[in-house]
Design a protein that fits this description.
By secondary structure, the protein is an alpha+beta fold. The chain has 26 helices and 13 strands. Strands 1, 2, 3, 4 and 6 form a five-stranded antiparallel sheet that branches. It has a four-stranded mixed sheet with strand order 5-10-9-7. It has a two-stranded antiparallel ribbon with strand order 8-11. Strand 3 and strand 4 (163-169) form a beta hairpin.
Length: 619
């Protein structure tokens, strides 16, 4: 008993995850280690023996039986406790480690456990906050309203009258987690050493899991995350975060504002609030993309219980224990990867995966490029707005399992976040496609962001070789215009900045040629129209009047008309804005040079046309 108490005290004092320190604790106090090994390794060994036997005799070739075994594995992790549940959740985002069927079952792993004794919860409050619950709360519901692997939540009212949710950590959690992480890490080391076909570094995966779980167990860290999230989104009137009550918060007790709301999956409840569920999903998708691509600080566990629709039409995010960060370089890389995907440049896409850290720079990309083509070609043909994200990620999972991919932790959490969000959205709209919903945001970022790498990506998107693709610009503007938060003035400024930059020479030349050609065509169209109005005896016969020729003229002019129409529909577009930009154009040296070149080209085309008309060449 004395020995067991010793490891409890030492493990409870760990502030952060340190595998070496954990090892030193349980080598000094082996009794509890041996006891826990017996509780965990026996059921794991029995399960693996059964799976191995069924694989040997061919039973697992049946998908039905393989799925049953995957479900049994998921249930086993729940029975083994919090660390194993967290390990299963981590594996559910790792297609480079886990086969597809197991991945699908693990993704449904629910972090829900029975609550613990309320007397222990009250003792935790007194120990951590230095006061009894009666001294802090005017009322406190003894029975928890929910419970998960790390803690449980009680409802209360502070002495100041504010309704609060109080999250209290499971007693002995840090001790149990450290012991289980030690066991799981040793299993990973054994697998890495003796099972050759496992390509990924399982020990590094467990260490990453350990760091994240220790962060999650620190409720002060969660409070910091909640307040940081609130600051980053303070200008977004559609998003809110519960207020944190710091005086009643510690490492094991978190007191936050009580929020009355409806889960996003409760469509009936949302409609009863007088809110369109689709509008809530749109807000959620835009907020997730803003987290990933603007702030680089995102909620990695947006399950239905963590996002609520409020009566006033806002979305409220809860539970900030599992957050992750994406560097500026990775954010830019993700947008560049989308550009290469849309442009079907699979060779560049494979290079993006190297830059993002998915593949080692020494990996031979030649066999991976055709694998990408097989996965994405059909999906891209369907169009981004109709692309099935779950289907694409499933196909990608098989590629990642086959080739030497190593998923960065942030990517695994992004995929988990987006798949969860898509699952919520599908409960509202069975036809929902998250890539289709996300693409307008990507388009806006690509058009607005001054990052030099994204300026280069914009050029890649708009040009095919040296040929400017008007339809791609139209598509980008069309999608960007779907964003309610788009800043039209900023977007136009970014386009003009690019046009008048040193790198914009090709675009300027293309515009000069295009505009001169369009003016010449309009001139010809005007001459034909005038000729048609003349008496029959005075009409010139050199002007063709066939419908196909007339339609071609209209079609040649139409791209510019479409672009103008798109701009006019954008929020914030008005005559005053146009005048403001005309003033800027007048002051641009490049703009004056372009005007001169357009006039010269148009003059040459007009002279050439007059000579042809004089020579009787049919127009």
């Amino acid at each position: 008993m004395k020995e067991e108490l010793g490891d409890f005290i030492e493990a409870a004092g760990l502030e952060s995850y340190d595998p070496n320190q954990i090892k030193s604790i349980y080598t000094k106090y082996p009794t509890r280690l041996i006891k826990r090994l017996w509780q965990t390794l026996i059921p794991i060994a029995l399960f693996l023996t059964g799976v191995g036997w069924e694989k040997l005799i061919g039973v697992l070739k049946s998908e039905k039986r393989a799925r049953e075994r995957a479900k049994e594995f998921t249930n086993l992790l729940v029975e083994l406790g919090p660390a194993f549940i967290k390990a299963g959740q981590a594996l559910s985002t790792r297609p480079d480690v886990v086969p597809r069927l197991v991945l699908e079952e693990l993704s449904q792993l629910q972090d829900q456990l029975p609550g613990f004794d309320s007397d222990l919860a009250l003792a935790c409050i007194k120990e951590d906050l230095g006061k009894s619950h009666d001294d802090i709360f005017d009322s406190f519901e003894i029975n928890p309203i929910s419970a998960a692997s790390l803690g449980q939540v009680h409802k209360g009212i502070l002495k100041t009258g504010e309704k609060v949710a109080v999250k209290i950590q499971r007693p002995g959690l840090r001790e149990q987690i450290t012991l289980d992480l030690y066991i799981v890490r040793n299993i990973a080391q054994w697998l890495k050493k003796y099972i050759g076909y496992i390509k990924s570094d399982l020990v590094a995966l467990i260490d990453e899991l350990g760091r994240r779980v220790f962060e999650e167990m620190d409720y002060i860290n969660e409070a910091d995350n909640a307040e940081k999230f609130a600051r980053l989104h303070q200008h977004n009137k559609n998003i809110t975060v519960p207020k944190i009550f710091r005086a009643s918060t510690s490492k094991r007790v978190l007191t936050m504002e009580w929020i009355d709301g409806v889960k996003l999956t409760n469509i009936k409840g949302i409609r009863e609030l007088g809110i369109n569920p689709n509008q809530m999903i749109e807000i959620g998708v835009n907020c997730s993309l803003q987290q990933l691509l603007e702030h680089g600080f995102f909620h990695a566990d947006p399950h239905p219980g963590n996002i609520l629709a409020l009566e006033d039409g806002r979305l409220c995010y809860l539970d900030f224990g599992m957050m992750s960060e994406v560097s500026d370089q990775s954010r830019t890389g993700l947008i560049q990867a989308v550009v290469h995907l849309v442009n079907r440049n699979f060779e560049k896409l494979s290079e993006d995966f190297v830059a993002l850290g998915f593949l080692d720079k020494n990996v031979d990309l030649r066999p991976i490029v055709p694998a990408f083509e097989s996965v994405f070609e059909t999906a891209v043909d369907m169009g981004v707005s109709r692309m099935d994200f779950k289907s694409v990620t499933d196909d990608m999972s098989s590629i990642m399992y086959k080739f030497p991919f190593q998923l960065p932790p942030y990517y695994a959490l992004i995929i988990r976040s987006l798949i969860t969000l898509e699952g919520i959205a599908l409960s509202v709209d069975p036809e929902f496609k998250i890539l289709g919903a996300a693409y307008p945001y990507f388009a806006r970022r690509l058009m607005e962001d001054p990052d030099p790498n994204l300026r280069k990506s914009l050029k890649e998107m708009l040009f095919e070789g040296e040929i400017f693709k008007w339809e791609r610009l139209e598509n980008l503007l069309t999608n960007a215009s779907k964003q309610s938060e788009i800043n039209i003035e900023s977007l136009i400024d970014q386009v003009l900045d690019f046009l008048f930059s040193e790198n914009g020479g090709i675009l300027r030349d293309e515009l000069i040629e295009t505009v001169a050609k369009r003016i010449d065509l309009l001139n010809l169209y005007a001459m034909k129209t005038i000729n048609k109005q003349l008496p029959v005896t005075l009409r010139s016969k050199i002007f063709k009047e066939d419908v196909n020729s007339q339609n071609k003229l209209i079609n040649d002019i139409e791209p510019i008309q479409k672009l103008i129409a798109i701009l006019q529909k954008m929020p914030g577009f008005n005559a005053q804005l146009v005048l403001k930009k005309i003033k800027r154009l007048i002051q641009e040296p490049y703009a004056r040079k372009m005007s001169m070149k357009i006039a010269q080209k148009f003059t040459k085309k007009s002279v050439a046309r007059i000579i042809k008309i004089a020579a009787g060449v049919e127009q």
